[in-house]
Amino acid sequence: MENVGRRRYRVVAATLRDRDVAEADRIAEALRDQGWHYSNRSFVIRAALVCLSDTLHGKPPAEMVQYFIDRRARRPQL
Asked: Angle 41-56/61-74 helices, nearest 10 degrees?
């Protein structure tokens, strides 16, 4: 029997660039400095995934692909 109300999480490995990790850490630190005590890198990345999901919700696959093409074209390649 599953415990109702318990949050279930999975650990997922992801490859991130050093600058992406640094940016997630910077955002988490800013949130903590402003009183959001439970903020950490994982929280920030989960929030980013929610934003991405909201942006792509209801879009057909071709529009999802176009979103990533457009994002890559706008972002400077470092």
From this structure: 120
